[in-house]
Structure formats: C-alpha cells, structure tokens
C-alpha cells in the first residue's frame, strides 16, 4: 500500500468513527414531573409523603412547597449535617435491633412515628424499632428534634465500628442528618452494585465514596 492509499484509509476510518459518535443518541434529559421543564443533574426533589415516592422538580415548582401543614408533597432540603458529637452506646445500637451496621431513621407523618430502615441488596428494608431506646438516644442528642419530618433522616454508618480498638469507643462510627433522597440514593447504590454474599469490592468502594461525599458536603 502506497502513502496515498494509507492516508485515504486512515481518513476513512477516522470519518467512520466520527460518524458513529455523531449518531450516538444523547444522554436522556430529566424533566420536572410537575411542569415538564428540563432540569439539571443537581435538581431538587419533592417527596410524596403517603407513598415515600420521590419526584424530580425544577426550582420554581419546588419553591411552591414550604413543608407547612398537611400537603401531598414536601420539598426535600439539601443541607447535610455531620454530627461528630453524637452519642450512642453499643447497647443502645443493639436495642434498635438493626440486622446490619447501617440504617436511617425518620419521622413519618402518615404513620405518626419514627421509621427505621436499612439499605440492603433487596432495597430499603424496614426494621422493628425499640421506641424506648430511640427515646433515650433523642434525649442525649436533642439535635434530632430539629429534623424535618418525612424529608430528613438520621443516617448511621457503623460499618467500621467492629474493627475499632476497644480503647477508642465510637471509632469507626459516623452520624449524619441528611435529606431523605440521599438515603434512597445510598440504598439504590447498594441494590444495583451488590454482588454475591459479601457484596464485592466495587460496592464497598462506592459506599466509602458515598460517605466521603457526605462529609465533604456537610
């Protein structure tokens, strides 16, 4: 093959690659589920309290909901609070009867009580909650009384707690007050990436990245 033929072949190959790229469909654009306006990746959410369903909302529609009174939708806040002084003993955690060392807790207005959920490969799973133990924890951590019902949750991460030295109580435990959509994002992450019995390295790496992100935004 001479130089002319080689150059023509290279040009044709590059052109084919460019044509395939141009024909590639654009990524789907999310829309506000109230007015159908396109929204960015970092858009707001509303929570349908009765079903716990999250819906995407543009800023203008989200501002219509101030979370006062009984409404069908509540606007999910965006603030994330890291609680470095949070107090919870091992016996209190055991009293909450969580099957794993990760869970989130929020007050449900439709059910009139605090709900305890833990993320799992099957999705968000409800656990029985010892209200006596929960009341003890709230008494020692009054900041929990500031959580907005339905749309904010206490997120507990004690995954590394078992590895902590006995001389360093609390090491390996993290506590946050987060928007409820972040809890469901964590649940979706675990459900979609879990492999086998132990989950696999990929899901644990993503869980670590998630909590690093929470600390960064707090």
Q: What does this protein structure show overall?
A:
The chain is of the alpha+beta class. The protein folds into two domains: 52 residues, no CATH class; 141 residues, no CATH class. It is 33% helix and 22% strand. The strands form two sheets. The chain has a six-stranded antiparallel β-sheet, covered by helices on one side. Strands 2-1-3 form a three-stranded antiparallel β-sheet. The longest helix is centred in the N-terminal third of the chain and has 21 residues. The chain starts with a helix and ends with a helix.
Shape descriptor reads: globular
Mean pLDDT: 85
What gap, in angstroms, lies between the N and C termini?
Answer: 62 Å
Rg on CA atoms, Å: 23 Å
What's the helical proportion of residues? Answer: 25-40%
Question: How many strand segments?
Answer: 9
Provide the succession of SSEs.
HEEHEEHEEEHEEHH
- What class do helices, strands and sheet pairing give? alpha+beta
Describe the main β-sheet briefly.
Answer: 6 strands, antiparallel
* Assembly form of the protein: single chain
Low-confidence stretches: 162-170
Into how many domains do the coordinates divide? 2
Q: Count the helices. How many?
A: 6
Strand content: 15-25%
Main sheet strand line-up: 4-9-8-5-6-7
Summarize this entry quickly.
By secondary structure, this protein is an alpha+beta fold. It is built from six helices and nine strands, in the order H-E-E-H-E-E-H-E-E-E-H-E-E-H-H.
């Amino acid at each position: 093959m001479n130089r002319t033929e080689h150059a023509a072949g290279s040009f044709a190959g590059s052109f084919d690659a460019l044509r395939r790229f141009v024909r590639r469909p654009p990524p789907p654009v999310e829309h506000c589920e109230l007015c159908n306006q396109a929204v960015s990746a970092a858009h707001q959410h509303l929570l349908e309290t009765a079903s716990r369903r999250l819906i995407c909302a543009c800023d203008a529609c989200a501002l219509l909901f101030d979370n006062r009174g009984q409404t069908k939708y509540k606007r999910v806040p965006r603030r994330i609070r890291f609680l470095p002084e949070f107090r919870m003993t091992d016996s209190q955690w055991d009293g909450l009867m969580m099957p794993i060392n990760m869970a989130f807790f929020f007050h449900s207005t439709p059910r009139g009580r605090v709900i305890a959920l833990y993320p799992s490969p099957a999705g968000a799973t409800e656990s029985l909650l010892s209200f006596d133990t929960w009341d003890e924890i709230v008494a020692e951590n009054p900041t929990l009384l500031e959580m907005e019902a339905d749309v904010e949750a206490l997120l507990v991460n004690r995954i590394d707690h078992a590895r902590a030295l006995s001389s360093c109580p609390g090491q390996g435990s993290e506590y946050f007050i987060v928007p409820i959509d972040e809890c469901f994002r964590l649940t979706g992450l675990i459900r979609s990436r879990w492999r086998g019995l132990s989950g696999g390295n990929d899901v644990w790496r993503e869980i670590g990245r998630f909590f690093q992100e929470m600390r960064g935004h707090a």
